[in-house]
Amino acid sequence: MNPTTSRSNGSRFDFTANLATQLVSLLLICLLALPTFAQPASRVYAIQGGKVFTLAGPPIENATVIIRDGKISAVGTHIEIPADAHVIDAKGLEIYPGLFDPVTQVGLTEVGQVVATVDVSELGDFNPELVAATAVNPASAHIAVTRASGITHVVAAPGAPGFELNGGGIVSGQASAFNLAGWTMEEMQIQPSVAMVINWPSIQTRTFDFASFSYKEKPYAEAKKEYDKSVNELSDWLARVRHYAQARQKGSPALYERDLKLEAMIPVVEGKLPVLVIAAEARDIRNSVEFCSKQNLKMILGDGSEAWKVKDLLKEKKIPVILGPSEQLPSQEDDPYDKPMSQPAELHAAGIPIAFSSFGTSFSRRLSQYAGTAVAYGLPHEEALKAVTVNAAQMLGLADRLGTIEPGKMANLIVTTGDPLEIRTQLRYLFVNGQLTSTSNRHRDLYEQYRKRPEPAR
Amino acid sequence: MSRALLIASFAFALVAPASVPAQTPNAVLIQNATILTVTQGTIEHGSILIRDGKVAAVGADVQVPAGITVIDATGQFIIPGIIDCHSHIAVDGSVNEGAPAVSSMANIADVLNPADVNIYRDLAGGVTTANILHGSANPIGGQTVVIKLRWGKQANQLPFEGALPGIKFALGENPKHSNFGPPAGTPARYPATRMGVEEVIRQAFTEAREYKKHWDDYNQRKAAGEHNQIPPRRDLRLEPLVEVLEGKRYVHAHCYRADEILMLLRVAKEFGFKVRTFQHVLEGYKVADEISTAGVGGSTFSDWWAYKMEAYDAIPYNAALMRERGVLVSINSDSAEEARHLNQEAAKTIKYGDLSPSDALKLVTINPAIQLGIDNRVGSIEVGKDADLAIYNHDPLSVYAVVQKTLIDGQVYFDRDRDLAARPGLEKEKQALLEKEKKAAEEEKKQEKSEKKQEKKKTSKPGNASNLASGAAR
Amino acid sequence: MKLHPGHKRESLILVAVCIIAIFVWAHAARGEGGEPRYFAITNARIIPVSGPPINNGTLVISKGLIQAVGPSAPIPPEAWVIDGTGLTIYPGLIDAGTDLGLPKPEEPAGATHGRKPTVPSEIAAGPEDRPATTPWRVAADELKIDDKRIASWRNAGFTSALTLPEGGIFPGQGTLINLAGERSGDFVVKPTTALPVSLKPIGGFFSFPGSLMGTIAYVRQVFIDASWFAQAQPVYDANFTKFDRLPYDRAERLINNSLRANEVVLLPGNSSVQILRALKLADEWKISPILQGGYEGYSVAEILAAKKALVLVSLKWPERSKDADPEAEQTLHDLRVRDLAPSTPAALAKAGVKFAFYSDGLATPKDIFKRLRKALDAGLTPDAALRAFTLDAADILGVSDRMGSLEPGKIANIIVADGEIFNEKTKLKDVFIDGRWFEVHEEPPPDKPEEKKPERQSDFPEAVGAATR
Fold this sequence. Notes:
In chain A, strands 1, 2, 3, 4, 5, 16, 17 and 18 form an eight-stranded mixed sheet that branches. An eight-stranded mixed sheet of chain A has the order 6-7-8-9-12-13-14-15. Chain A is 30% helix and 22% strand. Chain A is α/β, with parallel strands linked by helices. In chain A, helix 2 (141-147) links the parallel strand 6 and strand 7 (151-156). Chain A has two domains: 42-98 and 403-458, Urease, subunit C, domain 1, CATH 2.30.40.10; 171-395, TIM Barrel. Chain B has two domains: 1-81 and 380-428, Urease, subunit C, domain 1, CATH 2.30.40; 82-378, Metal-dependent hydrolases (TIM Barrel, Alpha-Beta Barrel). In chain B, a hairpin with a 5-residue loop joins strand 1 (27-36) and strand 2 (42-51). Chain C is an alpha/beta fold. Chain C folds into three domains: 1-26; 31-92 and 404-469, Urease, subunit C, domain 1; 93-401, Metal-dependent hydrolases (TIM Barrel), CATH 3.20.20. Classes of the chains: A alpha/beta, B alpha/beta, C alpha/beta. Chains B and C meet through helix 1 and helix 11 of B and helix 5, helix 7, helix 8, helix 9 and helix 11 of C.
């Protein structure tokens, strides 16, 4: 554009202004060319021509989604494309809300066996004041790898067990929800505290002793005593928290000392922050549900491998379940071989809200595979989709912002070649926090690099 | 003896917890399915005639012999039974003899456990043959064996007849015990570096060569009529290595990093033996040309990574890239759980690497068969091959596919319908036995109480002769 | 007191009397004095086991042996005659696997609740270190006859037992003992009766062998080494100027001796998988298949018969552990096995498999017969049970030429009861061991039977599997 043509009235100021405009445009163009992580959301996108699965109603064929300032601003057919929109042609493609992995260690661990890279479990049993977001490494290779599978946001849960690691502690800290794109945690953060993680103590008659590298057994009576002690400690803690909360609310801070741990638990006893109780065995689930009910805590069950055995109790107490991988071995030798795969369908049929999660880092990208397998064994497809998008958002109080494609919600979206639960489906475009985000990652980079390796001399 | 076997199998079936299917007739026709033969294309609305455990005919127009048992597979998909090239199921006790650096005297074939429920679980995932390996705690580990997952049979009926025996090598972090250590007071075991790992292998093969020399020498002199010789000692550790040198035993080498892959190729060349497969070989894509030139197979994961330092450069494109450069690639499980969905893992190469579905399927069928030297019998659906089949309700490379039946040697070893139907009965039996035990325990408690009372009465009287079976009065 | 010459003769007599007294006393201390070793039991029902029962007969014991058995027999005048009207005479029972008379092995530091010690004090790097191999330990050399259980067993009708050393892969050699004597040597009938082999991997992850396959490979190597020794030593001895000196390996020598002496080699085998594995190994190692344990024998009885295997059946039927988590899963497999295990003896008897019973660490004879009762209820005939406790046990242990039945010339190990032997109401009247009479006393109630915890097959950390992927 010729700076002297438009709006020129010969004034020197106008000339400078036009140059400035051009420089700004140039800058914007340069910014566009860079792979965007997340930037001050000022972009407008229009995704056009694809089939949109809003998960808030029936799918819409040949629809348009408008993204503006990080949010979904319009969805539907016959929507006007803004002039400044970056248009994405999604003909033949499908659009879904970005997948959500609600229990992971993404960002908290890089290489499982290398202790220096692991920040999952702190020492000690009671660490409610710890917040996962503090330790998430935005430069972790896992972030780009995971989002390349269509997962746009995750929760990192401190102390939760995973493939590479055992869990740690009883009250392990606060789980944090964040987007898988951003330069810093400040940019990525969705909510630093979405749940308090509690690893429900188990009655351990058999533990692996690393010192002697073998199993050690102890009689049930002894193990039960230790368990009772842990549970009593937990209940004592909660009593102290309530006392502290009362003093804080009604009393004068000058008269008592501030306690960070007790303070961190206040939202829990007030029912404002849910507790994510991680329990796999039926007895542990039963005990923890009864405990939380007595203590008036808002409980979400995490893992729930044997949830099917205590279905009625979960239904009665309205406990939602964030399931671990549906592809695991049955917990007992005599369990039906397909129990972990068919359990999601069973729980759903019983009216229990479910969500899928990976409980991992390097296997987070299998989230859709876990959901797809559950469909193979009886879970309705639509429910499975919800269980990797909106259900967990609802459980964690994020449903006003995430989980469906509706105007006003955060623009976390995926554009795919088809059913996101099917293995061979490819991800074409990825939107995180309203930004078109690159899907390149460590793995693709290594692939391209070594693909180019010339044949070695023989 | 066969009667004894039959009775024993039946008796064993009584104690095998999961449902053991009834005997399948010797001749069976599976009808009207989509048959993915792997080597000879896909047949729509095809049938397979099975006789004597083998595929007798396969095609769209197979003649239906009169009176034959028909399995209707309309709408279903049949593939060759999946072959898992890296498995640790069916082993009694530890899969590792981890204390010595070289544990080649240990043999997995000695400790096969046919009652491992994971055999059944993997059958239910379509696996019919598995390469059961020693663990990776040693640079040279124990001997390995290929088995068919013949659930309900005895241990000596599991090994794949005619399959060459193997031996497990391991390179990298595990054999140098780098991610765990001995308890306080116990010395660490050599090797602690990758240099030491190589040295252990070279040293062992050097000794094996000398061992072979001594024996050849002895045998020669004996044949020449020399008496009064003391034979060399037989060393069970070195004998499998001699077999490797003679090409009679396959080497399956667990490895991760590109440099250690090349190291083993060098050592193998130096001593004149061939590595049959690299296992895991997660950095195989970096040295795929070298692997393919050496003619070694690669058996890898679909998408595992970052659990160890040496797995940090692992990529899900590994299989595709190695294959591109001419390596014969298979995808394995190394896990009783992963083995249940190797069809899904194979499908991932369609996404990561753009393999065609038929090439993806090869990664868990004919390719591992060739790697294990058993492709004359399994790995594809062809006339004359074993009737080892997996029948699915959907395209096997779809996440929605569920195995309906698994056959080995023409026998149905897994039947989903029958499994579902058997569950209430098994649960009932379990409850009945629990009740019985509970009652017996209560009876015993009652008796003990009454005995204690009797004893108290007795001690006041002078000594009588004791009851032979005192206390067991009922 | 000054010795007068006149008192000299008296002194001599005094000395002579003292000497004789000492002699007699010394003899009495050796048991040579006391009751004459001649007994006869008349008008009794006699169950010889080796032949049909004799309804009304006489049994004569003379100097430790059975002199005569029959409807009538000449009774030596020295014999103490016991009127056996209403009584039944049986051969004494044999417990084919105990640790009677052997002190308990020390539990090494670090052991937990009876399970195997976690890290052995000496790390073995391979078979050449001969881990846990002490075949030179002979139970006969270590007998402590003040073991109170010996009298307890005797009072219950046991006259002999195979006592086995414990600890390790080749713990030593078991001795067949009679359950009476003044000194430990008196007890011993056959010092090296059995060579038990244990396949428990005693090493753990860091010491060899740490796995079942490693243990099997080790035992295999030991047998190979023993046979090499048998070949090599004579050649060396005849031509030692031609060969490098042979090193000394005690284990090799002893195992070789045992095999040559056709000593009974005991292989463990409880579950059907273990039993079949033991049969396969016995074939390979060219030893007679003699199994110890056998509780799942009912499922493989035909195979055992076909292989002519012999079984020492443990009476400690598998039970739910009392320490266990009450909510822990009981697998259907375990439930079935626990239900059917007591039917093993009946199944073996039906299939024609020769077997004996052993107490396997049960604390009291009362426990033994309680467990036997389960086998009888499950279909074992009392005759077959008696045979297993007597002649078949003796046969398996290689002493049926000397004991196990009531025949002239056999050792007089005899029990006299007032009824059918395994009937609960039957009381034992007399026990003879080596032809010596023992009165049977009422058993005081046991204070606290300390049962050995059932040894489970070595489990292995799955965590190791994950660490060694």
